[in-house]
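Supplementary Note 2. Why include the ligand at all?

Several targets in our set were suspected to adopt different conformations when bound, so apo predictions alone were not considered sufficient. For every target with a known small-molecule partner we therefore ran a joint prediction. The input for magnesium ion is given below.
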Amino acid sequence: LLKRFLKLRMSTPVSKRLSSHHKMDDLSTQHIVVKSSLAKAISADEKSTVPNDTVVQLYEESLKEIEKALAINLSPADPNFREHLKVKKKLEQHRDSATDRVISLITKSKGAETSIGASKIDSLVRRSIHSEEAEAKSVKKRNLPTSPQFKSTTQPLKPSNRTPNDSSKRISIQPQLGQTASKSPSPQEKIIKGVDPKIAEIILNEIIDTGRTVKFDDISGLREAKAALHEIVILPSLRPDLFQGLRQPAKGLLLFGPPGNGKTMIARAVASECKATFFNISASSLTSKWVGEGEKLVRALFTAARERQPAIIFIDEVDSLLTSRTSGEQDSTRRLKTEFLVQFDGVASDPKERFLVMGATNRPQDLDEAVLRRFVKRIYVPLPTADSRHCLIQTLLKNQIHKLSDRDMSTLALELEGYSGSDITALAREAAYGPIRELTHSQVLKVNAKSVRPIELADFEYARKKVRASVSIETTGCYTDWNAKFGTIL
Ligand code: ATP
Ligand code: MG
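The joint prediction is reproduced in token form.
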């Protein structure tokens, strides 16, 4: 009995471990097969000479390999289980990307309405859903604790309450399915040739700014900066024929200055006034969401912008992305920066590219020198002058009931030396609360909006005690020094 017991004890775990290793090995091998088959498909996709049908076929082959890999399962108790999940998650991402790409290729070449296109899409979608359902079932069977990893892979498709019609959901990330068949693809078309469809989708969905509401007239003061932008950006975008050769506009423009004085606002106004595709990205969207994927995103961003010329790429808070490269920084950050510079150079050296990279920062001194060189024009967005402050106060009070004369406003403007545009906005908000604060709670509820007392100079005086200037004199000094050294003379 003891012998048998010992034999069992010795043999079971080893054999179990062995089979698990085998399975993990199988998965790893299959993963390599998938990668190489995908690489083949992608490289064919990137070549404009390869017909779409061939590319589709290659993707379909990759999809088959992916399904094979996904069919390999390990028990949750297995020591390799975590590793296995990681690989599977990657494979699922590959499958989604490849499926989306195939769908877009089919709709692009044949039109969604044609029966061949439609049936191919249908079978692809079904296959994709089917395997996910199978996956979900096996998850249930294994009675897995819902680890975040698994949640994220199964959640978007909600397999348990899916109806047959839900296949539309699967392709809902391609809302232009019908539209792509039309002759002129919409600017929102979510496909960029040669770019991973998932990344393309992120760029086109999240980065192109569609909320274009700020106008140049909404910005008080900053006359020189506005004039410079008019010349460098707006006019060339409206009359590209005039701005060629020697008159070719600069490809890199940096807005710098203390916080809260309208850099971001100016960029938004540019977006609304010029006829260019505006890619608005913040450095954090490149770095946080896409750890390790940053370079790909940068490359895709430039590819997308090239496809939709004239284009402006605006990077807010550019300092956090392109700070001086240090030896201690992470590899991925460094690669991201290098990629950015390479792409930027590619654009700058080609006179045919109608392209502008625009950055904004309140820490220009932190920028990498190589980056600085590429932002040929550097425009200082300073603290508002007394005139600009006056103008801003006027703008802020325009639609309010108030008793401030023009003289009051200019006195106030003089007193607000050192206040930034956003400080003055905050101050005016605080002052506007003055009349309301005098009322009791029930009065506020009942009072007629027109009979609230007008805002007075005293409200501003009171608010001044609460809202202080946020930029110190020393800080301003840094900016003026930097401007004298590196800024563009306007
Ligand atoms: P940061 O460097 O912190 O990003 P910023 O220069 O980009 O600051 P904005 O975001 O453009 O500052 O401005 C903040 C707010 O301040 C604006 O939303 C606007 O309400 C107000 N503001 C600042 N400058 C002006 C201005 N010149 N005219 C009108 N409003 C302004
Ligand atoms: Mg800003």
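The CA atoms of residues 90 and 216 lie 46 Å apart. The beta strands are 252-256, 277-282, 311-316, 355-361, 377-380. Comparable summaries for the other entries are listed in the accompanying table.
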